[in-house]
Amino acid sequence: MNKHTSLLWGAIMGGLAVALGAFGAHAFKPFLMESGRTDTFELAVRYQFYHALALLAAGLVIVPGGSKWMNYSSASFLLGILVFSGSLYALCLTGFTGLGAITPIGGMFFIAGWILFALGVAKK
Fold this sequence. Notes:
Layout: H1 3-25, H2 29-35, H3 38-61, H4 68-94, H5 103-123
């Protein structure tokens, strides 16, 4: 992932986190409260927002021809958002608990993203 793509996805994911958080607090609130999934939905939004900021940070330090580690870090953060937060959103809105089985894979992408970020900074 290059600088432009990382910044673009960071902005998109940050905006979506705000929008989904608002929907969770208002439009989806009765449904989430009834299903007991309010905390799960909030966790998905929180981790999406944290890693949208991480995408923006990675994008800011990527330089053309720079470290491949930062590029890989950005991709890992994006995959983590899609898998971790995405599976939790789907779990909350569908009630299909089998989706919870893939959530840890998203967490592994987050961890990998932070390790790769550290390697990118260390190699700079």
